[in-house]
Amino acid sequence: GDGKMDFMYISDGTTGGTMLAKNLASGAPGSIPIAMTAFNGKLFYTSVGDNSQLWSSDGTDAGTTQFTSSIYYTDFNTAIGSQLYIRGTTGSLSNGMWVTDGDPTHLTLLSTTLTASGFYVGMGGAVYANPDAPAGFQYRPMTVTDGTPGGTHVVADVTFNKPFIKLYPGIIQISYADWRASAFLSVINIIEAICSAHYRYD
Fold first, then answer.
1. What gap in Å lies between CA 49 and CA 191, rounded to an integer?
2. Which residues is 95 bridged to in the sheet?
3. What is the C-alpha separation between 161 and 117, in angstroms, rounded?
4. How far apart, in whole angstroms, are the C-alpha atoms of residue 44 and residue 71?
5. What pTM, to 2 d.p., does this model score?
6. CB-based contacts of 2-8 (< 8 A; 24+ apart in sequence)
7. Is residue 69 within 8 Å of residue 124, measured between CB atoms?
8. Interval 132-161: pLDDT, tens
């Protein structure tokens, strides 16, 4: 009711301990923080009201700062292990897959052809993503990365999307459909792992 519902707040769980962390955009609709992820003792989030830039906060006004101005339209911020994975856009590349160790100078683009991943999943020492299908692929392919451009590649040309996956210890189960044939494909295959994980396709 005070026009600040879409700003970043910090709270200790009490009314008196709930306060505005930082005002990034005055007036409605506010900064609209989304994709909030705890990483390296800070909260990383996207500020929609600030061209969807990536920010980090330690819970104080002074400690709430723009993480980088190199990428914008950021989302799907995901902390996995010692790295933060981000989807972000530059002037020359839309929705790139980026990674950082929390240092703004250590922000790395993982691929120029595998872009627009809708999520990141960690398992078995590796990270999996579902970028848009590059040339030669039909689906949003299952992609694996070790956090480096050289270690980022497609595992299988199957629809790797959250509605179709289940995670088990050491196993990713994927259910997918060939919509052109209007029938579900049932393929079961055990593949010895990249980065010591296993994949099972159902």
1. 44
2. none
3. 10
4. 14
5. 0.76
6. 3/27, 3/28, 3/30, 4/30, 5/30, 6/30, 6/31, 6/32, 6/33, 6/49, 7/31, 7/33, 8/33, 8/45, 8/47, 8/57, 8/64
7. no
8. 888 888 778 889 999 999 999 988 887 776
